[in-house]
Amino acid sequence: MTETRTRATTPEDLARLFVERANAGDAEGLAELYEPDAVLAYPPGATTVGREAIRAVCERMLAHAPGPFRVEEALPTVRHGDLALTSTRPADDTGGRVQVARRQPDGTWLRIIDRPEIRSETHSEDRPEAGAE
């Protein structure tokens, strides 16, 4: 049985689709938002390369992440031809999320580079402990 998932028709769709699939516990669907040789800077301090490795990381993330995920505030997308730089302001105060997406031959978009957490050492030291808010 072949499952058909909604595809991103704009680079901005990728963040919404990520949240929908994460909330559905769909690690395979999350990995399908990436090109086959995409690079994911996750878990923090590591680099994950390739859709299959990204699927495995997503499985582990979904097994441990508190839910539900929420669509975060999008910052303006920057485009150059078939490339787009997208970013959001994280609700979890990780400093920022940034992705590079590429338009596919069929007009849909997939991520090629994803850095879901940007946290400086100074910033992380200044953060309150969990539950201190």
Give the tally of β-strands. Answer: 7
Instruction: Output the CATH topology.
Output: Nuclear Transport Factor 2, Chain: A
CATH architecture: Roll
Mean pLDDT: 87
SSE sequence, one letter per element: HHEEHEEEEEH
Indicate the percent of residues in helices. 25-40%
Rg (CA only): 15 Å
Distance between the termini: 47 Å
Question: What is the beta-strand fraction?
Answer: 25-35%
**Count of spatially separate domains:** 1
| SSE class | alpha+beta
Shape estimate: globular
Number of helices: 4
Instruction: State the major sheet.
Output: 7 strands, mixed
CATH top level label: Alpha Beta
Low-confidence stretches: 121-133
How would you characterize the overall build of this protein?
The protein has one domain: Nuclear Transport Factor 2, Chain: A, CATH 3.10.450. It is of the alpha+beta class and 133 residues long. It contains four helices and seven strands. It is 27% helix and 26% strand. Strands 1, 2, 3, 4, 5, 6 and 7 form a seven-stranded mixed sheet that branches. Strand 4 (78-80) and strand 5 (83-89) form a beta hairpin. Residues 81-133 are annotated as: Disordered. InterPro entries: NTF2-like_dom_sf, SnoaL-like. It comes from Streptomyces antioxidans.
